[in-house]
Design goal:
This protein has a four-stranded mixed sheet with strand order 2-4-3-6. A hairpin with a 5-residue loop joins β3 and β4. It is elongated. With 359 residues, the protein is mostly helical. 54% of the residues lie in helices and 6% in strands. The protein contains 16 helices and six strands. It has four domains: 113 residues, Conserved hypothetical protein from pyrococcus furiosus pfu- 392566-001, ParB domain, CATH 3.90.1530; 150 residues, no CATH class; 47 residues; 37 residues.
Length: 359
């Protein structure tokens, strides 16, 4: 049983975002109150006390006291019960919980370990594979911490196998998480390419790891595999493209949409479909770009069909009261010139082909 005042949050907690000062108790508490639904658990501890059957896990802290590696959320609850003024958000609810508390623990049960690695070995299955799983990003950061405890002489396949074995998971799953984290870190270093509202507290890393499971997608950004931990070949201009396609919601939704559309993006990114990629990069919707992944003749006829349909829409809209200008007239003239030029070119090709003379 150790005094609450001697227990400190883990600055390497993989659930904490890098955007906060992880060594600052007030910052950590503020994030936990906002994101970790502390108020519910605070009420439970205040009413029933702390259950001794769930000790915290910690190690001695070089500067004195102890670092809690497992149980930071429970530690936050008890710290707030003891000192509700630490709460910078939702202060009224926490002040009330503290004032009404039947129990305000001054000490907590802590299982002490000699090294951090001993605790990490125990947490792998619990939070990555087991019943109390973390977010995909937290899992990946945890595995990255564990990776630093293994021999530096291991190649990436050996490392993935060793990590998978230690947490009771699959090698490909572990490798995929670490690859996704590596790409995410590269994105974070670029300040998320200026995408509004995107940070490590909101990003769905699972979208990135899922996308990297497709050959043409991981090849597009320069990787040899979606399970490769060698990120040196990353092409950051292509990473920027992929990031914006699957995360940027500035237009209301992302360019790719749901993860089930990654298969379509994979087809568009096939090197055999340059017209489809060019169309998608120019801003055409995914479904339209996908139509350009067929044979050249098929693509040509699809383009004609779409043009005819759009012009039909424009003609039907004339029934409405439109505020038309000379700009619209010039636009139609350009379309007419393009259509006449296209007609002449196609007619010359058809006339020169005896087999297709009847077309």
């Amino acid at each position: 049983m150790l005094p609450v005042s001697e227990l400190h949050f883990d600055p390497l907690n993989p659930r904490l975002p890098t955007t906060i000062d992880r060594g600052n108790e007030v910052d950590v508490l503020e994030w936990m109150i906002d994101k970790a639904t502390l108020t519910e658990l605070i009420g439970s501890i205040a009413e029933q006390g702390y259950f001794p059957g769930e000790p915290l896990l910690g190690v001695k802290r070089p500067g004195g006291g102890y670092v809690i590696i497992e149980g930071n959320r429970r530690l936050a609850d008890v710290k707030l019960l003891n000192n509700p003024k630490l709460a910078k958000i939702r202060p009224n609810a926490i002040l009330q919980a503290s004032a009404d508390a039947k129990y305000t623990p001054k000490e907590l049960p802590v299982m002490l370990y000699n090294t951090r690695k001993e605790i990490l070995d125990n947490l792998g299955f619990r939070h990555v594979t087991g019943i109390k799983t973390w977010s995909t990003l937290a899992k990946a950061r945890f595995l990255d911490q564990m990776r630093s405890t293994f021999s530096a002489d291991m190649d990436e396949k050996e490392m993935a196998r060793a990590l998978a074995k230690s947490i009771g998971s699959r090698t490909d799953y572990v490798a995929g998480l670490l690859t996704g984290l590596g790409v995410f870190n590269a994105i974070e270093q670029q300040a998320f390419f200026g995408i509004r509202g995107m940070d490590d507290d909101k990003i769905e890393l699972s979208l990135l790891t899922t996308a990297l499971g497709y050959k043409n997608i991981y090849s597009y950004i320069g990787l040899s595999s979606g399970r490769s931990m060698d990120l040196a070949p990353l092409k950051m201009d292509k990473v920027r493209d992929l990031t914006k396609w699957i995360f940027d919601k500035s237009e209301g939704k992302t360019r790719v949409g749901e993860s089930r559309n990654f298969g379509d993006l994979n087809v568009i990114l096939d090197p055999e479909n340059p017209l489809a990629l060019e169309a998608f990069q120019s801003g055409r919707p995914l479904e339209e770009a996908l139509l350009l992944t067929g044979a050249p003749t098929e693509n040509f006829r699809i383009a004609l069909s779409q043009a005819e349909a759009r012009l039909g829409d424009a003609q039907r809209s004339l029934k409405d009261d439109l505020a038309l200008t000379k700009i619209d007239v010039e636009s139609i003239k350009r379309i007419r010139r393009l259509a006449i030029s296209l007609l002449k070119d196609v007619e010359s090709r058809v006339d020169g082909d005896d087999e297709d003379e009847d077309i």
